[in-house]
Amino acid sequence: MAMHLGRLSAGPCWLAARGGCGELRSWSLRCAAGRFCRPPGTACPEQSRGLGYGPTAGGGPRLRTGLAAGLAGLAGLAAAAFGHVERAEMVSKSSGAPSPSPGRPEEEDDELARRCSCFMASPVTDLHELRRRPGDVKTKMELLILETQAQVCQALAQVDGGARFSVDRWERKEGGGGISCVLQDGHVFEKAGVSISVVHGNLSEEAAKQMRSRGKKLKTKDGKLPFSAMGVSSVIHPKNPHAPTIHFNYRYFEVEEADGNKQWWFGGGCDLTPTYLNQEDAVHFHRTLKEACDQHGPDLYPKFKKWCDDYFFIAHRGERRGIGGIFFDDLDSPSKEEVFRFVQSCTQAVIPSYIPLVKKHCDDSFTPREKLWQQLRRGRYVEFNLLYDRGTKFGLFTPGSRIESILMSLPLTARWEYMHSPSENSKEAEIVDVLRHPRDWVH
Questions:
Q1: Second label for 205, Cα 20 to 30 Å away, from 224, 227, 236, 387?
Q2: 334: cis peptide before it, omega within 30°?
Q3: Is the CB of residue 234 less than 8 Å from the CB of residue 197?
Q4: How far apart are the C-alpha atoms of 95 and 41, rounded to whole Å?
Q5: 437 catalytic, yes or no?
Q6: Which of 247, 284, 286, 361 is catalytic?
Q7: What is the model's pLDDT at position 288?
Q8: What is the pLDDT of residues 51-93, one digit of tens each?
């Protein structure tokens, strides 16, 4: 069941002040109501110890290929559940946390309530349950994705200058739900979506088979596998062909086996898809992601950068979807806390890696030819999402999936021309060469 919560105007809780030359000069930590709002991951004062390594061969993190589909498809919302939310005022909590109990007014003003007041809508999980398990990674991850959603949408709304986001809070009858926020036909953005989902229940047999085929050894009880999954996912398509498209997704998955043992892992990534190559933009984007990764280990960025180049490959075209970024899946060592802190750093890198690029190019002049090329490149984006993306495919073939959220990643417009090929030595040919031969942007 989806509840349309209306449209939200500008007035961000996490305010990005516009600076010159596309720079983010300052950030306001207060929402419209004057309440303090934390950036992702700052609720816990403990210092990051860095991402450790498991006991696998070679000393690398215990990473297994391919369970990106697990989060969304299994949960019935698809890992491609995109939707962007922006907010200036608190959305009505039509299906959120209950009112504080009489005689306990402190609940209304506690730290959790203050953090929740800056979200696009109230948490999917009941506040009483979140208070009951404050140190649980599931609680921390849900709050992190809600904060990330709100902050990204605030930044997008300010750049767009007056755009409004539709906000849908939806429920999954099998357990959990999500919040999907979408901007369409804005001043700067043709389509922008930031979606979060928090779901739980029992994995379907098809989902369990999919996971086993990718290396998971799961013990069922009476054919059931209880699971919890949550994540934030976003795709942003600007109007100007000189402003790049971005995609990011960060997720957590947990399965309880018949013997009570819990398997858990994190996955995610962030990648950039420009229509035209801008060397400075590419370096800025990759350097920002590298700085986030380097806080947790010098080996992470090169490993996840290569993984991203390999994953976003359109085989029938022989080219990548974009100029890459980072991508990782099934990250489950050395501990939940250390991997969670790594994911925090990644979410914090989204705004500084991307917003300056949009501000830099959103008012660039462009020709009809350049707009046409943008539409052709978006056709490639559609091809990858529908033919290759594991989360999208799994979600489309999983009963109970929320199709609108799955397809939210697609642009409003795209184009296919028969036997189109860019002219030799043109700017169009330049980006195609990069897509066929990935580059190292930070060394």
A1: 387
A2: yes
A3: no
A4: 26
A5: no
A6: 247
A7: 99
A8: 644 433 333 333 333 333 443 343 333 333 333 333 322 233 3
- Residue range of the domain that includes 300: 8-13+28-98+112-436
Question: How many domains is the chain built from?
Answer: 1
Inside any domain, residue 361: yes
The Cα–Cα gap between 246 and 409 comes to 10
pLDDT tens digits, one per residue of 262-302: 889 999 999 999 999 999 999 999 999 999 999 999 999 99
Question: 133-146, pLDDT tens digit by residue?
Answer: 999 999 999 999 99
Asked whether residue 441 is assigned to any structural domain, the reply reads no
Q: Which of 224, 246, 227 is nearest to 236 (CA)?
A: 246
* Stretch 359-383: mean pLDDT: 98
Each residue of 125-156: b (16+ CB within 10 Å) or e?
A: bebeebeeeeeebbbbbbbbbbbbbbbbbbbb
Structure tokens at 86: 């922006």
Termini Cα distance of the chain: 49
20 within some domain: no
- CA distances in angstroms from 230 to 48, 78, 389, listed in the order given: 22, 11, 18
Whether residue 42 is contained in a domain is answered as yes
